[in-house]
Design a protein that fits this description.
- By secondary structure, the chain is α/β, with parallel strands linked by helices.
- It folds into three domains: 37-79, 434 Repressor (Amino-terminal Domain); 90-199 and 334-352, Response regulator (Rossmann fold, 3-Layer(aba) Sandwich), CATH 3.40.50; 201-330, Rossmann fold (3-Layer(aba) Sandwich).
- The longest helix has 21 residues, at 7-27.
- It has helices spanning 7-27, 37-44, 48-55, 63-76, 82-89, 104-121, 144-150, 169-178, 201-214, 230-245, 262-273, 287-299, 317-321, 333-351; strands at residues 94-99, 124-129, 158-161, 182-184, 196-198, 220-224, 255-257, 281-284, 309-311, 328-330, 362-364, 368-370.
């Protein structure tokens, strides 16, 4: 090859040759050997059998030893072979999560927790959406034939059902018929399916109403969620109970029903703000609807929180991205996802006679009232 006369051309050819050499080196680089149970055992100073018991969660290993093995697993980057475990133990090491909730942010937080827990215990998480959940409408028809195929005990060890599908009676019948271990993310039990993870929705809404009343608000309003959400009903009951216990009344005109989205929250808020004796505080049963209340108030040039206090529920990302930032009830969605996987796996081990531990059927996690800029003292109480 002739030597280029121009410096720019020389530099271009030199870079090309370097790239070719680098790519050639990568092509012939030796592949890193995957770590095995023996590598973990050597690192932890135990037998491969002890490592196997920890990996497969068979029990009978001291806590200190199990922790040392977990550290060794992380250090050597050991990843269990799901296929081999399936053949040796009779389990599929797969958990199915079925959902039909169009609220993407709510579902995503649950999924992050589930995936994290599954990774920790060596399970795969299968995710299936049923119904036309992409249409942003809750309560659309569900294909039960499709669900029957999904709930195949030869393919999965158990199933997790978040709301609203966890309240679907026909689905729960199929779960019982298939005898598939099931955890519901729900505040109420469902006949034979007792395993559930939740927060106390009644108590959370009760506390929120108490907060409004402590700020001098007496004319309160609520935007409920869809009727097929038991959690929404519990929030309404808790909010109403607090109002009654303070000797106040919740006017029927101050009760609206939305669809857990911003648009329905905006529409419901418009109705409330048109009232002659409009409320001084509005509780929307989730943060998306509360964001809709904020937009409706801004359209009507009602100042928040000076003239109207607003609160939501969940502490979803939207609660911190709108202005003013939303007062809300923080629901630990990621922890709920993690706990649902851990509870299901504990139950699976118990029914397979791999554990003598008592499985807690109802796991109740803590909530937190987050007071932010969207709420404050009642304007009437200031005078």
């Amino acid at each position: 090859m002739e030597r280029p006369d121009r410096p720019n051309e020389y530099r271009r050819l030199w870079r090309t040759r370097c790239r070719l050499r680098l790519s050639d080196n990568k092509r012939h680089a030796p592949r890193k050997r995957e770590a095995t149970i023996k590598d973990v055992a050597l690192e932890a100073g135990v037998s491969p059998m002890t490592v196997s018991r920890v990996v497969n969660m068979k029990g009978n290993v001291k806590q200190a030893t199990a922790e040392r093995i977990q550290r060794a697993i992380a250090k050597v980057d050991y990843r269990p072979n799901i296929g081999a475990r399936r053949l040796s133990g009779g389990r599929t090491y797969q958990i199915l999560m079925i959902f039909n909730n169009p609220n993407v942010t709510w579902t995503a937080k649950l999924l992050i927790g589930m995936m994290h827990a599954c990774r920790n215990i060596g399970y795969h998480l299968l995710i299936e959406g049923v119904g036309d959940y992409e249409g942003d409408t809750i309560g659309l028809p569900i294909d039960y034939e499709e669900i029957t195929k999904l709930l195949d005990p030869s393919r999965i060890d158990g199933v997790i059902l978040p709301p609203p599908i966890c309240f679907d009676r026909r689905l729960l019948e199929i779960v019982r018929e298939k005898a598939v271990p099931c955890v519901r993310i729900a505040g109420t039990p469902a006949q034979d399916i007792q395993l559930r993870v939740s927060i106390d929705n009644f108590a959370a809404a009760y506390e929120l109403a108490n907060y409004f009343i402590s700020e001098g608000h007496e004319n309160l309003a609520i935007i409920k969620g869809p009727g097929d959400y038991v959690a929404s009903a519990l929030r309404f009951e808790g909010f109403s109970a607090s109002i009654r216990d303070h000797g106040l009344k919740l006017s029927p005109s101050n009760i609206q029903t939305g669809n857990f989205d911003v648009q329905s929250g905006n529409e419901c808020a418009r109705e409330l703000l048109r009232l002659k004796d409009r409320p001084t505080a509005i509780f929307a049963s989730n943060d998306e609807m509360a964001a809709g209340v904020l937009s409706a108030a801004q359209e009507s040039r009602i100042r928040i929180p000076e003239e109207l206090s607003v609160a939501g529920f969940d502490d979803a990302p939207i609660a911190r991205s709108v202005w003013p930032k939303l007062t809300t009830i923080r629901q630990p969605l990621r922890a709920m996802g993690e706990k649902s996987v851990e509870l299901l796996e504990s139950y699976i081990r118990q029914i397979n006679n791999e554990s003598d531990e008592t499985v807690q059927s109802n796991v109740l996690l803590d909530y937190e009232l987050k007071v932010r800029q969207s709420s404050g003292t009642c304007p009437i109480a200031k005078h």
